Structure formats: C-alpha cells, structure tokens
C-alpha cells in the first residue's frame, strides 16, 4: 500500500466534495442503537435529495426497530481514505406513506420500488445535523463541515 500525499482542503472544498459524494454514491453505513443490545450497523442503499438521506429497510428489521426506539443515528460513506460521517435523527415512513418525490427518486436510482413489495418496508429519512469530512490526519483539524444543520464555509 502506497501513502498518498494529502493536500488539505478548505471547508468549502470539503463541503463541495461531500455533496458530490452524497449525490453519486450508492451505499451508506447506518449505525443505530438498541437500549439492551447496544450498537447495530448495516449498509443500506441511499438517496440524497439535497437536504436529507433516504434509506429503506424491512419494517421488522433490527434497524427499523432500533430507530423507532432511539432515532439518533450515525451514517458513514464507505471510504476510510475519504471519510464522510453524518449525524442526525431518523424519521420513519411506512413505504405506502412515504412522500412521492422520495419514493420516485429512490426507485429511479435503484430500479426497485419497496412500495410494491409484499413484505412491509420502512423508509428512513435523516436530515443531518452534523457532518464531518476528512482525508487523513492532516485534515482532522476543521473536519466539521455542518453544525446544527447548517453547512459551514
């Protein structure tokens, strides 16, 4: 493995790169917590609508059960060399009640419509309150690019 030279980005550059990745990537890691069983983490497909992350999971999954008890979640894009972490509260939408624009966007991106499945699905919507982005140790300082739901830089 070869080390990469890291050129520190400004907050505005990190924000731009983060928004680009949110708009183009497919998978996101979702971390939830159960009061008795502790942390739970799974990868899910996601849609970024410009304001929030939309994901879908089985209505009876551990992820769905956890967010209904404790809505605070952490999300992570899957690249340890280009870290993007989001934190916020998940709002739950049964598949048949999800807003049309979110459902159509999700279906358009993945070619799959959870609203048509026989088993029940739950959409999770997370409007991030905090976003951190960094590439390696040189970028740890200034890694917060969103605070209290407002983009910095």
UniProtKB/TrEMBL annotation:
<dbReference type="InterPro" id="IPR052019">
    <property type="entry name" value="F420H2_bilvrd_red/Heme_oxyg"/>
</dbReference>
<keyword id="KW-0560">Oxidoreductase</keyword>
<feature type="domain" description="Pyridoxamine 5'-phosphate oxidase N-terminal">
    <location>
        <begin position="25"/>
        <end position="134"/>
    </location>
</feature>
<dbReference type="GO" id="GO:0070967">
    <property type="term" value="F:coenzyme F420 binding"/>
</dbReference>
<dbReference type="GO" id="GO:0016627">
    <property type="term" value="F:oxidoreductase activity, acting on the CH-CH group of donors"/>
</dbReference>
<dbReference type="GO" id="GO:0005829">
    <property type="term" value="C:cytosol"/>
</dbReference>
<protein>
    <recommendedName>
        <fullName>Pyridoxamine 5'-phosphate oxidase N-terminal domain-containing protein</fullName>
    </recommendedName>
</protein>
<dbReference type="InterPro" id="IPR012349">
    <property type="entry name" value="Split_barrel_FMN-bd"/>
</dbReference>
<dbReference type="Pfam" id="PF01243">
    <property type="entry name" value="PNPOx_N"/>
</dbReference>
<dbReference type="InterPro" id="IPR011576">
    <property type="entry name" value="Pyridox_Oxase_N"/>
</dbReference>
């Amino acid at each position: 493995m070869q080390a990469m030279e890291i050129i520190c980005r400004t907050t505005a550059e990190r924000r731009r790169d983060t928004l680009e990745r949110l708009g183009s990537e497919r998978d996101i890691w979702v971390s939830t917590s159960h009061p008795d069983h502790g942390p739970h983490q799974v990868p899910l497909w996601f849609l970024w609508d410009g304001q929030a992350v939309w994901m879908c999971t089985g209505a009876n999954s551990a992820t769905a059960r956890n967010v209904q008890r404790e809505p605070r979640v952490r999300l992570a894009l899957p690249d340890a060399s280009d870290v993007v972490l989001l934190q916020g509260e998940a709002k739950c939408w049964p598949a048949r009640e999800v807003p049309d624009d979110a459902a159509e966007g999700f279906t358009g991106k993945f070619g799959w419509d959870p609203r048509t499945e026989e088993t029940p699905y739950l959409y999770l919507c997370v409007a991030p309150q905090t976003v951190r982005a960094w590439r390696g140790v040189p970028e740890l300082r200034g890694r917060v690019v969103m605070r209290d739901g407002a983009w910095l830089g």
